[in-house]
Amino acid sequence: MPAPDTPILDAPRRITNAWSILPGWLPVPGMGALPVNSFLLKGREPVLVDTGLAALGDRFIETLAGEVDLEDLKWIWLSHMDADHVGNLSRVLELAPNARVVTNFLGMGKMNLAGLDVSRVHLLSPGDVFEAGGHRLIPVRPPYYDAPETIGFFDEGERVFFAADSFGALLPTTAGDIEDIEDNVLRDGLVGWSSIDAPWLAHMDQSALGGMLAALDRADPDFVLSGHLPLARNGIARLTRHVANAYGRGTSSAIDPLAVEQVMAQLG
Ligand SMILES: [Fe+2]
Ligand SMILES: [Fe+2]
């Protein structure tokens, strides 16, 4: 489908037994469109990951309510505090009285600065594993990002990696899965978006970046969920290859306890 003229939210799609995607698209004039996705983990303790675009407020709430009883929503995982990830946070908090916000210290500070209610924050400290309804979400700092509070996760049981802003791509047309995107289009989309969203990537230590990408390749998630990419089923190697070719190669050993290499090595 061609890029839309206004923000849209497509129908939710099942990813695994537990995970669904709420796929949104934001037109970027002259450049195509950027996916702006939220994700939902269903089960005993439903988790919403990010809250979409404010411009899609009614549609977002209606779509979410079609997937989960808002009274039952237990957690709202915020990847970071950018407007395209917290667009409907206040409304969801209002309509989902039992939901608590999962974020880290800086995320909570930014919520406070934005005048948002922090009384329902569940604070993630470095090294914490987040458990919800039998799912273990292991926090991990994605290889690149545009805000320092950014926190992704690896769902061990479902073999799902949530990359936040990492691996986002500006695309000329909409798509449901990266398998439907030609390789050069995907490459240009990844490089185009990362050069806008994380320009520092071009100056990053090449061996450190290579080490993170290699660790993700070894972890080999069944699904990569990015806030800004269509679904990537078994697609990690394709994504890391394009990023490595654009920005760096090599490997390194990391000392950051949240580093991809460290976390993935513990997954066994
Ligand atoms: Fe962002
Ligand atoms: Fe974003």
From TrEMBL:
SMART domains named among the record's database cross-references: Lactamase_B
InterPro entries, per the entry: Metallo-B-lactamas (IPR001279), RibonucZ/Hydroxyglut_hydro (IPR036866)
PANTHER family: ANAEROBIC NITRIC OXIDE REDUCTASE FLAVORUBREDOXIN
Pfam families for this protein: Lactamase_B (PF00753)
Residue ranges the record marks as coiled coil: none
Domain of life: Bacteria
Provenance organism: Devosia salina
Domain Metallo-beta-lactamase: 35-228
Official protein name in the record: MBL fold metallo-hydrolase
